[in-house]
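1st attempt posting a full record on here, be nice pls
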Amino acid sequence: MRYFQVDPAAGKEEFVSGAAWNDIVQLYELDARLRSFLLDGIQLAEIATRTAFALSEGEIHGAYEKFLGNNAYKLPKNPAVKPTHQLIASELERSKEPFLGKYRRDADGDGSGWLNDVPVWVAVEAFSLGTLSKAITFRNDGGAVYGRACSILGVGKPYLASQLRSFTFVRNKCAHSARLWNCFVLDQPSVPAGVKSRAERIVDERYGSNSVLAVIVALDNFLFRTRLRKGFLDDYLELTARNPSFSRGIAHPRNS
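the predicted structure (as C-alpha coordinates):
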Protein backbone atom coordinates (compact mmCIF):
# COMPACT_ATOMS: atom_id res chain seq x y z
CA MET A 1 0.00 0.00 0.00
CA ARG A 2 2.97 2.33 0.47
CA TYR A 3 2.90 3.31 -3.20
CA PHE A 4 -0.61 4.68 -2.69
CA GLN A 5 0.35 6.81 0.30
CA VAL A 6 1.60 10.41 0.16
CA ASP A 7 5.12 9.85 1.58
CA PRO A 8 5.26 6.93 4.02
CA ALA A 9 9.04 7.20 4.35
CA ALA A 10 8.55 10.66 5.82
CA GLY A 11 5.65 9.56 8.02
CA LYS A 12 2.91 10.90 5.70
CA GLU A 13 0.81 7.77 5.57
CA GLU A 14 -2.46 9.24 4.32
CA PHE A 15 -3.57 7.87 0.96
CA VAL A 16 -3.29 9.96 -2.19
CA SER A 17 -6.47 11.27 -3.77
CA GLY A 18 -8.16 8.65 -5.93
CA ALA A 19 -6.48 5.63 -4.30
CA ALA A 20 -8.81 2.62 -4.45
CA TRP A 21 -8.76 -0.62 -2.50
CA ASN A 22 -9.51 -2.67 -5.62
CA ASP A 23 -6.42 -1.25 -7.38
CA ILE A 24 -4.23 -2.47 -4.53
CA VAL A 25 -5.86 -5.90 -4.50
CA GLN A 26 -5.41 -6.28 -8.27
CA LEU A 27 -1.69 -5.53 -7.97
CA TYR A 28 -1.36 -8.03 -5.13
CA GLU A 29 -3.14 -10.76 -7.08
CA LEU A 30 -1.21 -10.06 -10.28
CA ASP A 31 2.06 -10.21 -8.35
CA ALA A 32 1.10 -13.68 -7.09
CA ARG A 33 0.29 -14.84 -10.62
CA LEU A 34 3.61 -13.52 -11.89
CA ARG A 35 5.48 -15.44 -9.18
CA SER A 36 3.86 -18.69 -10.31
CA PHE A 37 4.60 -17.84 -13.94
CA LEU A 38 8.28 -17.17 -13.22
CA LEU A 39 8.68 -20.28 -11.09
CA ASP A 40 7.47 -22.39 -14.02
CA GLY A 41 10.07 -20.86 -16.32
CA ILE A 42 12.92 -20.95 -13.81
CA GLN A 43 12.17 -24.60 -13.03
CA LEU A 44 12.78 -25.47 -16.69
CA ALA A 45 16.03 -23.48 -16.65
CA GLU A 46 17.14 -25.16 -13.43
CA ILE A 47 16.59 -28.70 -14.71
CA ALA A 48 18.44 -27.92 -17.94
CA THR A 49 21.34 -26.42 -15.99
CA ARG A 50 21.55 -29.43 -13.68
CA THR A 51 21.81 -31.65 -16.73
CA ALA A 52 24.47 -29.45 -18.33
CA PHE A 53 26.61 -29.45 -15.18
CA ALA A 54 26.34 -33.21 -14.65
CA LEU A 55 27.23 -33.91 -18.28
CA SER A 56 30.13 -31.46 -18.46
CA GLU A 57 31.59 -32.43 -15.07
CA GLY A 58 31.32 -36.13 -15.89
CA GLU A 59 32.87 -35.77 -19.33
CA ILE A 60 35.79 -33.62 -18.18
CA HIS A 61 36.57 -34.79 -14.65
CA GLY A 62 34.67 -38.04 -14.20
CA ALA A 63 31.50 -38.75 -12.28
CA TYR A 64 32.97 -39.30 -8.81
CA GLU A 65 34.80 -37.33 -6.10
CA LYS A 66 36.39 -34.59 -8.22
CA PHE A 67 33.38 -32.28 -7.89
CA LEU A 68 33.70 -32.53 -4.08
CA GLY A 69 37.40 -31.67 -3.85
CA ASN A 70 38.72 -28.86 -1.63
CA ASN A 71 40.31 -27.22 -4.65
CA ALA A 72 37.53 -27.99 -7.12
CA TYR A 73 36.13 -24.45 -7.01
CA LYS A 74 37.54 -20.95 -6.79
CA LEU A 75 37.32 -19.58 -3.28
CA PRO A 76 34.80 -16.75 -2.69
CA LYS A 77 36.29 -13.29 -2.40
CA ASN A 78 34.41 -12.79 0.86
CA PRO A 79 35.91 -15.15 3.49
CA ALA A 80 32.59 -15.11 5.34
CA VAL A 81 30.92 -16.89 2.40
CA LYS A 82 30.99 -20.69 2.60
CA PRO A 83 33.18 -22.26 -0.14
CA THR A 84 31.31 -24.06 -2.90
CA HIS A 85 32.64 -27.54 -2.10
CA GLN A 86 31.37 -27.14 1.47
CA LEU A 87 27.97 -25.97 0.22
CA ILE A 88 27.70 -29.06 -1.94
CA ALA A 89 28.71 -31.41 0.88
CA SER A 90 26.31 -29.82 3.35
CA GLU A 91 23.39 -30.02 0.92
CA LEU A 92 24.07 -33.68 0.22
CA GLU A 93 24.40 -34.51 3.92
CA ARG A 94 21.24 -32.57 4.76
CA SER A 95 19.14 -34.16 2.03
CA LYS A 96 16.55 -36.77 3.00
CA GLU A 97 16.06 -38.01 -0.56
CA PRO A 98 15.98 -41.82 -0.75
CA PHE A 99 18.25 -41.85 -3.80
CA LEU A 100 21.00 -40.41 -1.56
CA GLY A 101 20.08 -42.53 1.46
CA LYS A 102 21.14 -45.57 -0.53
CA TYR A 103 24.75 -44.36 -0.55
CA ARG A 104 24.70 -43.68 3.19
CA ARG A 105 23.47 -47.19 3.92
CA ASP A 106 26.04 -48.83 1.66
CA ALA A 107 28.99 -46.89 3.09
CA ASP A 108 31.44 -48.14 5.70
CA GLY A 109 31.64 -46.00 8.84
CA ASP A 110 29.65 -43.03 10.10
CA GLY A 111 31.62 -40.17 8.55
CA SER A 112 31.25 -38.31 5.26
CA GLY A 113 33.17 -40.83 3.19
CA TRP A 114 29.95 -41.99 1.56
CA LEU A 115 29.85 -38.75 -0.41
CA ASN A 116 32.70 -40.00 -2.59
CA ASP A 117 30.47 -42.83 -3.80
CA VAL A 118 27.77 -40.44 -5.07
CA PRO A 119 28.03 -39.77 -8.82
CA VAL A 120 27.61 -36.18 -9.93
CA TRP A 121 24.47 -36.97 -11.91
CA VAL A 122 22.83 -38.09 -8.63
CA ALA A 123 24.35 -35.39 -6.42
CA VAL A 124 23.20 -32.55 -8.65
CA GLU A 125 19.57 -33.42 -7.91
CA ALA A 126 20.09 -32.23 -4.33
CA PHE A 127 21.74 -28.92 -5.27
CA SER A 128 19.85 -25.70 -4.66
CA LEU A 129 19.77 -23.39 -7.66
CA GLY A 130 22.22 -21.06 -5.92
CA THR A 131 24.72 -23.87 -5.29
CA LEU A 132 24.28 -25.15 -8.83
CA SER A 133 25.03 -21.68 -10.17
CA LYS A 134 28.21 -21.48 -8.09
CA ALA A 135 29.31 -24.99 -9.05
CA ILE A 136 29.22 -24.10 -12.75
CA THR A 137 30.56 -20.57 -12.44
CA PHE A 138 33.38 -21.19 -9.96
CA ARG A 139 34.66 -24.59 -11.19
CA ASN A 140 38.41 -24.28 -10.86
CA ASP A 141 39.54 -25.83 -14.13
CA GLY A 142 40.30 -22.92 -16.42
CA GLY A 143 36.66 -22.60 -17.47
CA ALA A 144 36.40 -26.10 -18.95
CA VAL A 145 33.17 -27.15 -17.21
CA TYR A 146 31.67 -23.69 -17.57
CA GLY A 147 32.44 -23.58 -21.28
CA ARG A 148 31.10 -27.08 -21.89
CA ALA A 149 27.89 -26.27 -19.96
CA CYS A 150 27.43 -23.14 -22.07
CA SER A 151 27.85 -25.24 -25.21
CA ILE A 152 25.30 -27.82 -24.02
CA LEU A 153 22.77 -25.11 -23.13
CA GLY A 154 23.45 -22.97 -26.17
CA VAL A 155 24.02 -19.88 -23.99
CA GLY A 156 27.03 -17.63 -24.58
CA LYS A 157 29.90 -17.63 -22.08
CA PRO A 158 29.55 -13.89 -21.29
CA TYR A 159 25.95 -14.39 -20.19
CA LEU A 160 25.35 -17.68 -18.38
CA ALA A 161 26.88 -16.80 -14.99
CA SER A 162 24.97 -13.55 -14.51
CA GLN A 163 21.74 -15.10 -15.77
CA LEU A 164 21.95 -17.98 -13.30
CA ARG A 165 22.54 -15.52 -10.45
CA SER A 166 19.53 -13.44 -11.48
CA PHE A 167 17.33 -16.54 -11.81
CA THR A 168 18.39 -17.57 -8.31
CA PHE A 169 17.59 -14.12 -6.92
CA VAL A 170 14.10 -14.06 -8.46
CA ARG A 171 13.41 -17.69 -7.65
CA ASN A 172 14.12 -17.03 -3.97
CA LYS A 173 11.79 -14.03 -4.06
CA CYS A 174 9.05 -16.15 -5.60
CA ALA A 175 9.59 -19.09 -3.25
CA HIS A 176 9.14 -16.80 -0.22
CA SER A 177 6.11 -14.99 -1.70
CA ALA A 178 8.05 -11.72 -1.73
CA ARG A 179 6.81 -8.79 -3.80
CA LEU A 180 8.05 -8.52 -7.40
CA TRP A 181 6.31 -5.25 -8.23
CA ASN A 182 8.86 -2.43 -7.84
CA CYS A 183 11.50 -4.97 -6.82
CA PHE A 184 15.13 -4.04 -7.49
CA VAL A 185 17.10 -7.06 -8.77
CA LEU A 186 20.47 -7.12 -7.03
CA ASP A 187 21.99 -9.74 -9.35
CA GLN A 188 21.38 -8.24 -12.76
CA PRO A 189 21.44 -10.51 -15.83
CA SER A 190 23.41 -9.87 -18.99
CA VAL A 191 22.04 -10.59 -22.48
CA PRO A 192 23.34 -9.96 -26.00
CA ALA A 193 22.65 -6.45 -27.29
CA GLY A 194 20.40 -7.84 -30.02
CA VAL A 195 18.27 -9.69 -27.47
CA LYS A 196 17.77 -6.51 -25.45
CA SER A 197 16.90 -4.47 -28.54
CA ARG A 198 14.37 -7.07 -29.65
CA ALA A 199 12.79 -7.16 -26.19
CA GLU A 200 12.51 -3.37 -26.09
CA ARG A 201 10.71 -3.44 -29.45
CA ILE A 202 8.31 -6.09 -28.16
CA VAL A 203 7.51 -4.32 -24.88
CA ASP A 204 7.61 -0.94 -26.66
CA GLU A 205 9.87 0.71 -24.10
CA ARG A 206 13.28 0.55 -22.50
CA TYR A 207 13.50 -1.20 -19.16
CA GLY A 208 15.74 -0.92 -16.13
CA SER A 209 18.78 -3.19 -16.00
CA ASN A 210 17.94 -3.89 -12.33
CA SER A 211 14.28 -4.66 -13.03
CA VAL A 212 12.37 -7.93 -12.89
CA LEU A 213 11.62 -7.40 -16.58
CA ALA A 214 15.37 -7.66 -17.29
CA VAL A 215 15.30 -11.13 -15.71
CA ILE A 216 12.19 -12.07 -17.70
CA VAL A 217 13.97 -11.05 -20.93
CA ALA A 218 17.03 -13.12 -19.95
CA LEU A 219 14.84 -16.10 -19.05
CA ASP A 220 12.93 -15.78 -22.32
CA ASN A 221 16.22 -15.94 -24.23
CA PHE A 222 17.58 -18.80 -22.08
CA LEU A 223 14.46 -20.91 -22.66
CA PHE A 224 14.55 -20.16 -26.37
CA ARG A 225 18.24 -21.01 -26.70
CA THR A 226 17.78 -24.28 -24.83
CA ARG A 227 14.67 -25.08 -26.91
CA LEU A 228 12.58 -25.54 -23.81
CA ARG A 229 9.94 -22.89 -24.39
CA LYS A 230 9.14 -20.21 -26.95
CA GLY A 231 7.26 -16.98 -26.34
CA PHE A 232 7.94 -16.62 -22.61
CA LEU A 233 8.17 -12.83 -22.94
CA ASP A 234 4.99 -12.74 -25.00
CA ASP A 235 3.18 -14.75 -22.32
CA TYR A 236 4.36 -12.27 -19.68
CA LEU A 237 2.99 -9.37 -21.72
CA GLU A 238 -0.34 -11.13 -22.05
CA LEU A 239 -0.42 -11.71 -18.30
CA THR A 240 0.13 -8.02 -17.48
CA ALA A 241 -1.52 -6.35 -20.48
CA ARG A 242 -4.48 -4.95 -18.57
CA ASN A 243 -2.53 -3.31 -15.78
CA PRO A 244 -0.08 -0.60 -16.95
CA SER A 245 0.73 0.35 -13.35
CA PHE A 246 1.91 -3.17 -12.61
CA SER A 247 3.92 -3.33 -15.84
CA ARG A 248 5.71 -0.09 -14.97
CA GLY A 249 6.71 -1.46 -11.59
CA ILE A 250 8.15 -4.58 -13.23
CA ALA A 251 10.05 -2.61 -15.90
CA HIS A 252 11.07 0.43 -13.83
CA PRO A 253 11.18 -0.30 -10.09
CA ARG A 254 11.02 2.62 -7.68
CA ASN A 255 11.23 3.05 -3.95
CA SER A 256 8.11 3.77 -1.95
